[in-house]
Structures are given as C-alpha cells and as structure tokens.
Design brief:
Residues about 5-15 and about 120-135 have low confidence and may be disordered. Helix 5 (about 145-160) runs antiparallel to helix 6, helix 6 runs parallel beside helix 10 and helix 8 crosses helix 9 (about 260-270). The radius of gyration is 21 Å and the shape is globular. It folds into 2 domains: about 1-20 and about 25-185, Nitrogenase molybdenum iron protein domain (Rossmann fold); about 195-315, Nitrogenase molybdenum iron protein domain (Rossmann fold, 3-Layer(aba) Sandwich). The strands form 3 sheets. The protein has a 4-stranded parallel β-sheet with strand order 2-1-3-4, sandwiched between helices. By secondary structure, the protein is of the alpha/beta class. It has 10 helices and 8 strands.
Amino acid sequence: MRYLILCLILLGFTQCKIDNKEVTGKPKIVCTTSMSADLVKQITGDKAEVSYLMGAGVDPHEYNPKLSDSEKLLEADIIVYHGLNFEGKMSDDLKKARKNKKIVIDLSEKIDHHSLIHLTEDHTHADGVTHAHEGEVDPHMWHDVKLWIQATNHLATALGKYNKENKDIFLENASNYSKELLELDDHLTKKYAEIPDSQRVLVTAHDAFGYLCKRYKIKSKSLQGISTAAEFGIKDVTDLAEYLINNNIKSIFIESSVPNKNLQAVIDHCADKGHSVKIGGTLYSDALGDKASGADTYDSMMRSNANTIVNGLKK
C-alpha cells in the first residue's frame, strides 16, 4: 500500500511538471496522421512547425512505427495524436514519449462520451459475425464534422496551455475554423440528402464511416470491423455478397488506405451469382489524399468523399 501511494504521488508530480511546462517561440509539433496535422495547422497558422508521420495511403491501424518516427517524437516539443486506439501499434512510442516528459495531446480526450460510437458484443455487420468486443470505441470520429469541432476547440485550448504567448491566436483561429466547419456540415447535410432512400447503404472494406453514416442518416455495411487488422474469411465474403444481392445493391466503395483485393472477392462472388456490382469510387477513410488528389485537407477530403458517395449511390 505504501508503495502504491508513493507511485501515485510520483505520477502526480510528473503530471504537474508536464502541465506547468511551457514552450516558447515556434514549437515543433509532430502529429501521427495527416488529418491531425491539418487541424493543427488550421489552429497554429505560422506559429508552429508542423509535421506528421503517416501520409497519404497509409493505414494507421496496421502502421508499424519506424526508428525515424521514434526519433521525431523525441525531438518534438508537442505530440498530437487521435486516440481511441486508432494508432494501435504506436501506443508504446506514445507511452515512451510521456515517460520522457513530452507534451502529448490526445485529440479525442474531450469528445462528448455519449457522441462516440461504443461497440458491444452484439455489434455485427452484414456477414453476421461479431467484429468488436464490448468496451471498444469506434475511433473514426472525424467523419462527423460536429465531433471534429469538439476536437478543434480542445486542441486550441491544449496548445494555448503550453504555448501561452500564442494562446489568444490559437483560440481565435479555432473559433474561425469552427465556423467554417459548421458551413461544411451544412453543405454535407444537403449533399447527402440527394441520395434516394432506397439506395442509402454505404458498403466499404472496413467499418470506417460509422460516424458519417450516423450523422447523415445512411446505413453502413463493411467486410471488416472498425480496424483493418480484424480478420475475415470466406464466410464474411459470401455473406456480404448475399446481402448485396438480396438488397439489390450495385455500388460499393474502395478506400485509399485499404487493399482493393478484399472487396474484389465480394464483387467476384456477386458476379458468380449473376449480380453485377461496380466500384462506386475511392474514399478517404483513414488518411487524407496527396496534393494531386483534391483531398489533401480535412475540408476537401470530406467534400470529395461526399461527392463520390452521392454520385456512386445515385447511379
């Protein structure tokens, strides 16, 4: 008991040291993903040096950190990551950074708990197989613009706490960006309303669009669960194919960060049964696109996905 109390005291002392830490000048901020880096840039403008570890086409669920990533994290003044176990294999690097008394900000930390999608053991997909265990939380919260606004405000407050000289600038930038995000949400609401009721089913490789579908009233089906690391087999493929056939669904969507072969097996099985299914387009699920894609910012990525989904399902 005395040992436990001592550990708690030391942990509290370490946290106090981090909370009181202040970064002056232009902080070096390292983000795990392109989405989080885009948000940091919106808030900091030219007041920070921002970089990220996982670029276009990278799957954060399966990403194996490189030695250079660890070095970048150790060199950073501030580290920003998504949380909710999105960067699963980077957990050790983030723990190490905290032990080295680095400032580490979790974007999801202040998201309204009731707004998150909490998965239970009876949460199943089209294949009828349980992909999640009770207590898991869907980490793809940025696909709901309203939740991204919550992350924006939290991040601005956290950055201002450690870089006090730019606190007012961060808060003002976050306020202005939040207004832009509200306009984006209004645009998306109107855009997704164009999909006919009979065709409002989004079928993808993995369950990355739960928040988007919940926000804009679309049904979501996928071959894998919330992580691309989830295993699937022949039965998953055949069951999803049967769902497409029975519900006369003719468009499914591939993802920029997930191999196409997973869904191709579903398409082939449908073809064997005489049901034609086409690729409705490529969506950006877990990473922004490159500069040539027209989806290299959060705003452009959300608009690109909306255009692709609406055009693919309306046909």
